[in-house]
Amino acid sequence: MAFDPKLQRQIMGCFATGVTVVTTRYGDHITGMTANAIMSLSLKPPRIVVSVDKLSHMHESLLQGKCFAINVLRADQESTSRQFAMPGPKDFSGLPLTVAETGAPVLVEALAFVDCRLVEILSGGDHDMFLGEPVVGEARDGEPLIFYGGGYTQLALSNGQEGIP
Q1: Is 154 exposed, middle or buried (0-12, 13-18, 19+ CB in 10 A)?
Q2: What is the DSSP letter of 86?
Q3: pLDDT at residue 125 tops 60
Q4: Which of 6, 36, 100, 109 would be 17's cystine partner, CB 3.0–4.6 Å?
Q5: Is 38 exposed, middle or buried (0-12, 13-18, 19+ CB in 10 A)?
Q6: pTM of the model
Q7: Contact 140, 120 (CB under 8 A)
Q8: Which one has a higher pLDDT value, 137 or 12?
């Protein structure tokens, strides 16, 4: 008997995650997607993974671009997350952007970013796992945007401080 995908989604919704916008570039084309299916795979050698639906536009863009940046969103960037979660072409106008080393767009106002070269692609059912080699990155001060139970929430700080409203 196959495991119910709805139950899998419900169970995994109990796992709080940060929220990122993964970006790439090939030629003059830039695109991005909201993602929380990312992870640090290895420190030696450094490897970071982003999981992407094989039928998505982003999948083909990553294959063409051979690079990606993972932009970790701040607590006040929910609208950016929603913007890049929508299907279809992505509008980067109004977002301050830069590039680091690979040419993938970096969101200037993100909490953190890591710029990666694509080094391997592994199949994982209806998604592929894009393994990146980090080449440059930065972490900044601030609070992360959190996704839990199908919605955005804030981090409850353990040092007595309150999270950002």
Answers
A1: middle
A2: S
A3: yes
A4: 36
A5: buried
A6: 0.91
A7: no
A8: 137
